[in-house]
Write a structure and sequence with these properties.
2 domains; alpha/beta; 4-stranded antiparallel β-sheet; globular; 6-stranded mixed β-sheet
């Protein structure tokens, strides 16, 4: 019976000279799961993925992908995975179909198999009517879909997506996630990194990494509900001075700007309305309505990162 976990990571570490890019990272990804791997730039996400794809050997710890060891069997791993990043290379002077035929050859598929799978993946990503178009003429969202089609041509059981929707318009991003959801429903395991936290809501579970270390993991709802205290929302005018004032109000543990709004964290039993309204009025800022709100995933992300920064300063 196959292991329920498609990916197992235990204490995975990677050093580049004296710099530790990935520091004893541990997590498990279940088969057929959409698993989000989040963190700011430079957190170690891409380095971790490269190790799991067999492209980079770890300095310590262990990992397995589809039951294959990332050190001893790293070459075999490449046969059972698909990998797509924001830098996925497509050939602009080839047509959509010619790109698929090229990648089919790279994967070692027979011409008849390439033809069959091309039909299937082009239908999946909605490009059946664009097969003869030059790739260089495709808009960003369509190129993204072709890159995904190329990455799954050989029917990988595990798919790694590294910032796949970077620079793509919101509608194309939503369409892309519809495709990802369909693939997961068919049993494909998907590990994805993204800077768009609205996309992270589509994931079954998440890991948040900061400076090479895991600082939180769980489902999107678990990460939001585990935040200590209460989050308050308001839309003050002007916004920037309101942020500085809010951060000085007694009882406030954190304050951050979200679009044209301000989110302020306090202890769960603390009533922020009066002290914050008074402080803002004294500073010449119109507070508007101050009310408790449900924590967003972005609230959780910022809170966990700030806590990790605080731990680093205390060392």
């Amino acid at each position: 019976m196959p292991d329920a976990d498609a990916i197992v990571v235990e204490g995975l570490t990677r050093d580049f000279g004296k710099f530790r890019a990935v520091d004893q990272v541990s997590f498990r990804v279940r088969r057929g799961e959409i698993f989000g791997f989040l963190g700011p730039n430079g957190a170690g996400k891409s380095t971790t993925i490269r190790m799991l794809c067999g492209l980079l050997l770890p300095s310590g710890g262990r990992g397995s992908v589809a039951g294959l060891d990332v050190v001893a069997e790293n070459k075999r791993i490449k046969q059972v995975i698909g990998y797509m990043s924001q830098r996925f290379s497509l050939y602009d002077d080839l047509t959509v179909q010619e790109n698929l035929s090229f990648f089919g050859g790279v994967y070692g598929l027979s011409p008849s198999r390439v033809a069959q799978r091309s039909e299937e993946v082009l239908h999946l990503v909605g490009l059946s009517d664009r097969r003869h178009d030059l790739t260089g003429t495709l808009a960003g969202g369509l190129r993204q879909r072709l890159a995904l089609a190329s990455a799954i041509l050989h029917q990988p059981e595990i798919l790694f997506l590294d910032e796949p929707t970077s620079g793509v318009d919101p509608n194309s991003r939503r369409n892309f996630w519809d495709i990802i959801g369909d693939m997961a429903a068919q049993g494909v395991t998907i590990l994805v990194t993204t800077h768009y936290l609205d996309e992270a809501e589509y994931c079954d579970r998440l890991v948040l990494i900061y400076q090479g270390r895991v600082v939180a993991q769980g489902s999107p709802q678990e990460l939001k509900s585990s935040l200590p205290g209460q989050v308050w929302g308001l839309t003050p005018e002007p916004l920037a001075p309101a942020l500085e004032i809010a951060r000085q109000v007694p009882g406030v543990t954190e304050a951050n700007i979200f679009g044209d709004s301000l989110h302020v964290n306090t202890a769960p039993d603390y009533d922020l309305v009066k002290p914050l309204a008074q402080a803002l009025a004294a500073g010449g800022v119109k507070a508007g309505v101050i009310a408790p709100i449900a924590a967003s995933l972005e609230d959780a992300f910022i809170s966990y990162i700030q806590a990790a920064k605080g731990q680093d300063k205390s060392k």
